[in-house]
Amino acid sequence: MKAFSSRAPRDRLVARVSQQELADAAGSVREVVARALRDLRVAGIVATAADSIVILDPARLYAEYAGLAGL
Predict the structure, then answer these.
(1) Domains and CATH numbers, the chain
(2) What phi and psi, each to the nearest 5 degrees, are found at residue 21?
(3) Structure pTM?
């Protein structure tokens, strides 16, 4: 997978990965990843482009993960 992350302007984390690559890495399908990213985008947690995901609010993203993982 060609994914890597870097810091974007305003110190945002950017994952340069397509939805298909993310789905493959997670053992899922692109449609499920697209729905999950849409929900995170609507909540203002991430922004997406064709080949990258920008994490706008890492604390809220972790809170979403912790809630789903039962942490």
Answers:
(1) 5-69 (1.10.10.10)
(2) -65, -40
(3) 0.77
